[in-house]
What we know:
The complex is a heterodimer. By secondary structure, chain A is mainly alpha-helical. Helices cover about 65% and strands about 0% of the residues of chain A.
Amino acid sequence: MAVRDRHRDSDREIFVRWMADHRGIIVKVVRSFTTNLADAEDLTQEIDLAVWRSIPSFRGESKPSTWIWRIAHNRATSWWRGAGSSHAVLDDVVGPSAPDRADDGLLIDRIYAAIRTLPPIDRTLVVLSLEGYRYGEIAEITGMTVTNVGARLSRARSRLSEVLEETR
Amino acid sequence: MTDQPPADEEFDPVVAAWAAQGVAGAAHAQGFDPDVLADSVARAHRKDQRRLLWLNVREFVPSVVVAGLFARRAPNTARPPAMLSAAALVFGVGVFLVVSSLRYQRADRGWGTSIREQVARRLAQVEHRAKLYRNVGWWYLSPIAVAVALVRYGRGEAALLSNPVFFGIIAAMGSALYVINRRIGRTRYESEAEHLRTLLADFDAGS
């Protein structure tokens, strides 16, 4: 029996264009949520597939980049590896003594390592904020109130600064 | 409250480093080809669709075949209504399996909604799945056991309990299925539901 595939050729073109223009979004989200190559590949695949499946639902009401941020963060935030390899365990690995800590002094590597010490939702808030999204936009993407976004983001940024200071 | 984080000189280097990372360029430099990715994702999507179709067929076809067999033999048995009831029960279990499977697959839809809403939607689906596995005795094993008893009754055979060997085999198979399903529900779905509940509570904290 043939499997019905709602994706048309134009959807494929959209996917190719989005990936050409916005691949960095997925790379950034994956780097903010994973600490090893296997997890990074798994999550990347999951996000790629989610973006592909989402294209028929895209009505152009938001920018493609915002759409991809939303999907990538949704997948990353609720990413579940099953019992025994939860996010908590993953987070425990990432600390000042973690192997992937940037000993080469590259600030961006230290920033990613610091982001991974935050709870999943705070990672999303910090990354979107670093991308220049406003509180209102972040609130819309995440589904939180603007007040809550502001308060949490403030705490998350403080925590991020502390971790960066500790790992300097 | 302003709509942007307040200016923070200490944080400026972080913002600058983030803006300067050029991840998209790096991805292209590493030989990233969107066309190749599109082909690969399309293949993975089709494979997944086929897998889901197969899961539904695997769940539905046996129940239709068995129900059809019972219904077809009903007129030639001692008690046709009992056979027809058994057929209806088995068919009902198949329909229930497919409906719950389709409902679970719908969890991925609603792409345009907020992350919180998608987490809530996913939680509802995972909780439903966990509930199915937890209550497998009620909606799957009991109807099947009743159907077996009805078939024996319909064919004028001795009651299930009066045949210890047959009863033992049925009870052992049922127990094994019960234990396996409960374990799957606990390890695969209840732990994920717990993770999603924590996430949802974290979303709502402070709002």
